[in-house]
Amino acid sequence: MKKPKSIASLLSARNGALGKTLKHSRHLLQLEHGIKALLPIEIAPHCRLANVQDDVLTLAVTSNVWASRLRYQLPQLLRQLKRHRRFHHLKEIRLVVLPESRQRHRQRPPLKLTLKSAEVINSAASSIDDKRLSAALRKLVRHAKR
């Protein structure tokens, strides 16, 4: 029977499925930040990058109201994006409406982190080469139920 791989090896394996997914996610996040910087300040918080495929960029907005407001900005946004090497091939920007969950706005009692879970997380943090991720996990451990 094979020994399970450590979290650190899974996260650092650049050629594995998880490594590729993480790399793609980071890339999309960078693109999203660049796109949001081009949007009017009142629209940006309500807009996320949903997908980039071939010559179509898809943006998700939180409501029909924001989609309507953004539609007026699309020709200018497309022109601005085409100036950048990454988006020079774009032909279209599509919008999809993905409403924010009402669940997100409800107050929930804070979740408790058990000592056992904290030990597991701390162990994982010790074996991870990514300093930011390791620090974030150690910070999480400090919230453990004492």
Return the average pLDDT rounded to an integer. 84
Count up the helices: 5
Instruction: Assess the beta-strand content as a share of residues.
Output: 5-15%
User: What order do the strands of the largest sheet run in, or round the barrel if closed?
Assistant: 1-2-3
Distance between the termini: 37 Å
One letter per element, helices H and strands E, the order comes to HHEEHEHH
Gyration radius over CA = 20 Å
Main sheet makeup:
3 strands, mixed
Contiguous low-pLDDT stretches (5 residues minimum) are none
Architecture overview:
- The protein is of the alpha+beta class.
- 48% of the residues lie in helices and 13% in strands.
- The protein has five helices and three strands.
- Helix 4 packs antiparallel against helix 5 (131-141).
- The radius of gyration is 20 Å and the shape is extended.
Short key terms for the protein model shown above:
146 residues; alpha+beta; three-stranded mixed beta sheet; 13% strand
Strand and helix layout:
Layout: H1 7-12, H2 17-38, E1 47-53, E2 56-61, H3 64-82, E3 92-97, H4 115-126, H5 131-141
Parallel strand pairs: 2-3
Antiparallel strand pairs: 1-2
Produce a short descriptive summary.
The chain has 146 residues and is of the alpha+beta class. It is 48% helix and 13% strand. It is extended.
